[in-house]
Specification:
Helices cover about 85% and strands about 0% of the residues. By secondary structure, it is mainly alpha-helical. The protein is rod-shaped and about 80 Å long. The termini are far apart. The model has no long low-confidence stretch (mean pLDDT about 80).
C-alpha cells in the first residue's frame, strides 16, 4: 500500500513540475510584453518632445540646454537598459524552464549533468537590477523635463 502512495506522490510531483515548466515558458514570453513596452514608449515620446522643444526654442540659456541634454541621455539609457532587461528576463525564464525539465528528468531517472538553479538566480538578479535602473532613469528624465519646463515657462 505504501508503494502505491509513493507512486501517486511521484506522479503528482511530476505533474507539478510539468505545470511549473509550462508556466515558466509562458512567463518567458510574457516578459517580452510587460511594462517594458510602456517604458520604451514613454522614453521614446519624451525624446521626441524634448528634441522638438529644443528645435522650436533657440534662445535658451546654456544651463537649460544642458538640462535638456541630460534628460535626453536618461531617456536613451532607460531604453537601452530596458532592452538589456528583456534579454536577462528571457534567459532567466529559459533557465527556470530548464530546471523544471531537469527535475522531471530526475523523476524519470534520466541522467542529466546540467545545473540551472544558480544560473537562473543570476539572470533573475540581473533582470531586477536592470528594471530598477530603467525605471529610475525614466523617472529622473521626467523630473528633469518638468524642471526644464518650469524654467522655460517662468
Amino acid at each position: 500500500m505504501k508503494e502505491k502512495k509513493d507512486t501517486y506522490n511521484e506522479e503528482r510531483n511530476y505533474r507539478n513540475y510539468e505545470a511549473f515548466r509550462e508556466s515558466a515558458l509562458n512567463n518567458m514570453f510574457y516578459s517580452m510584453q510587460r511594462i517594458d513596452l510602456i517604458i520604451v514608449s514613454l522614453s521614446s515620446g519624451s525624446i521626441i518632445i524634448i528634441l522638438n522643444f529644443l528645435k522650436e526654442v533657440q534662445t535658451l540659456p546654456i544651463c537649460t540646454k544642458v538640462l535638456a541634454f541630460i534628460s535626453l541621455i536618461l531617456f536613451v539609457l532607460s531604453i537601452i537598459i530596458n532592452v538589456l532587461s528583456q534579454f536577462t528576463a528571457h534567459k532567466f525564464h529559459s533557465k527556470e524552464a530548464d530546471w523544471a525539465l531537469q527535475e522531471m528528468n530526475d523523476m524519470n531517472n534520466i541522467v542529466s549533468d546540467e545545473n540551472n538553479a544558480n544560473d537562473s538566480k543570476i539572470w533573475n538578479t540581473f533582470t531586477i537590477i536592470a528594471n530598477i535602473f530603467s525605471v529610475t532613469f525614466l523617472a529622473l528624465g521626467f523630473i528633469l523635463s518638468l524642471i526644464l519646463l518650469g524654467i522655460v515657462i517662468f
